[in-house]
UniProtKB/TrEMBL annotation:
Signal peptide annotation: 1-20
Record keywords: Signal, TPR repeat
Gene3D superfamilies reported for this sequence: OmpA-like domain, Tetratricopeptide repeat domain
Name under which the protein is recorded: Uncharacterized protein
Source organism: Neolewinella lacunae
Domain of life: Bacteria
Renumbered ranges of TPR repeats: 103-136
UniProt keyword Signal present: yes
Amino acid sequence: MYRFLTFLVLSLLVSAGLYAQNQSFTGYIEGGDQAMERNDHYNAFRLYDIAADPEWEEDRAYEERIAEVYYKAGVAAYRATAYREAEKYMLQLQSRPEITKYPLVKYFMGQSAFRQGNYDQAAANFQLFLDEQPNAPEEYRSAALAQINDSNWAIDALARSEDVILQHMPEGLNTENSDVMYVRGPNGTRYFTSNNFEFKKDTVSPKRQLSRILRQTGERTAVPLLNSINLPGKNVAHTAFNLEMTQVYYSVCDFRNYDELICDLYRADIGADGEWANPVKLDLNVAGYSTTQPSIGLDATDGGSFLYFASDRPGGMGGLDLYRAALAPDGSLGAPANLDKLNTAGDDASPFWYGPRQTLYFATDGRFTFGGLDIYKSYLIDGRFRRPVNLGNPVNSSADEAYYTRFDDPDQAYVASRRPVEEALFYSEERDVCCYDLYEFTPDPRLDLQALTFNKLTGKELPGATVALYKITPTGPELIEEITNLEDNEFNFLVEPGGKYELKATKDGFTEDLDAFDLASPELKDLSFIERRLELNPKVNLDIFTFNNVDLSELTGATVSLYEVNEDGTLTLVREITNPIGNDSHFDLEIGKNYRIEARKDGFGQAYTEVDLRNYSPDQGGTIRRDLYLGQTLEVYVIDGRTDDPLNNATLRLSKSDGELVDERSNPTGNDFYYTVNLDQPFILNTRREGYFPRTDTLVFTQQDLVDGGGKLIYYVPLFSDNLNDFLPFEVYFDNDHPDPRTTSFTTRLSYDETYEPYIGNEEIFKKEAGEGLPEEDAFIERGNIAQFFEQEVKTGYKQLQRFADALIQHMRSGRSFNLELQGSASPRAETEYNRRLSGRRITSVKNFLATYRDGALLPYIKNKQLTYTESALGESTAKLAKIYERLDQVRESIYSQPASLERRVVLRAGLNLKK
């Protein structure tokens, strides 16, 4: 049995006083109580309303019981859907001192406000009820919580009202009683159900109304069907034709109690004249329960026909449920199946199948509604019903809407509504309860788009997200609508066929998801319902702070790069941040991924860290902090120790003094290496290359080194060939009569570098004297020759001596021996013997240099004869004597000229290796 959409006419009741056995103040209260016991809420309200009249003030019980009357009148009015009256009496009750006896007042005020569309006021009353009545029955507290959510949903949904105009259908189709279920039949006929017929043989007083199916042809007045269909004494309603228009299904209902109906489904044949014949009760009815409101639909997926209906039979989810049963070509029906994806704990009824869009429309009060029953729709795709979508305002209102139907050619829809508007034939200020009227409208031609948000990590539905719909235009994305759904993960939009769109889903604590799609694409162009899945990954907030590793101060202006580490180890840049005024950078990370973070800044070495969230649980916290300390950049360049040329393909190993490896790598195509080091901390650098002696350097850099390098640390590593012959022969040069001028000793205590420095200091004297007395042009040439000599011979020779000494040290350390030939020469200004002794002193100065170089590194090898010398003090015997002898009397030519200077030298050559 059910009261859903009961077609009772309330305005034709005889005087409510008939229900009062004693027409007094207490008598009307007792009459109202009796009416409430039999669920006759409307008459109960009218009786309480009479009792509330101030004319009873003289009654001794009035003052004692008037608060009780206000409360009972308000509750009865609410149950009878007289919401304004319910609100009025509850407000009157609030001024009474007995208000504390009635803890549900705010609850009913909230419900009454909600059913009038005053959603803000409703939510406020429900919240006051929850705050003030913590011990109220749980069923009311749960309902209040749900209604707060409903109110918030309705407020948001009203802001998205569609541009649809509902037209009240004309009188004749609409009456002062309920009129529902407008459908198109064969040959242009229209059918609807009206509750405008008096039940003349009713045994209940006042008499009730009966519903009848009416047919309208053309512009003629609608007439009831024959009594073989509209059975006497029964409510006959709802019309559903099969696809061939050869059979029709309808409901036949009996009264149970005063305002309850119990219905069964019938089927009749349609004759050639359009008359209904051979009515038969269907076998799928269940005795004692309602089976009602039929609709026939064709599933385009498999081509099967189904009979949809509503029923309160056992095994449902609550109230009326939606069912369907397969309909065979011969009219036989399969076993009914509960549409559990659509049904709720409330009432789900008045199904209507719309074939062109494979859509089932139905009425429900078990989902978010604007009040009471709302029309929802669900698309059947690949045999599965999609999530139902509310048709929105203005199709739905704060009143009840049901019996939605829709037809093509033209595309027109119809709905039955109890909205209290002026056009409604039943409506008046005194009579705000009653009946359904029929409305028609042109449906919105746009397509339904449903976006669903999910937790990407768990796959579960994700409520509380915000989804924005953008239309892609030639000038860029254009925001169409943005919806925040705090209750579930469903977001419903309308889109133009063939348009290009993008969805953007966001939620605090989650990454965003973007979904672009083209409705003109082959996979979407023929769909009337678009479902898109948006997956948001729980995110972790990553806070990166950069510091100077030298003094631990905040390091501003660093660039921080976030990379995702792919399964193959490669890196994909996710985001890069440069903070010019701070040392903090902030990123959103996705749980389930692996990341590498790198920080860099000019003049500093790179720092990095890794954050692995592949096995991360959100319970571990939503924020991760990493501090990155950037040391100084060390640039190392490997060069040939003899030529200073870049030396590619070296291998470098940098480690800390405690042996901890910093880095080891080769550079096949270059000579540059980059490291991050800390100031005042020792590092060990090992360098090697094939064909060269390996080298180990201990590096310690100071703040001054950084200043001297202009914010950089640069270190050159000269590698020396392991073949000393690559260095030889070369010459080193001496000042006139040096070392130890005007002496005859064959040896000296001076080292070559001690004679070299003063010699270099005399370069300007040599240039001046070399051009003395010559014409200006010749003098210019001579001075240039001297400058070139000092640069290319003297200085280069000294540099070569140092590099050779370095190579010789490594040669000795490798265990090898070497014989070095030293050949000394002099210019022929003095006597031959003097020059020979001078040449010996020059050879000795070179030997002294090698013995003391780098703190005597070669001295042990000299002592143990691993390094030996072959000496030749030649004096002037190799000089180009002829040209010099011509001008020995001239100081310029014999001392300061380039030819004379070239003769004052020691030649270093590879000698005979005496150790085989």
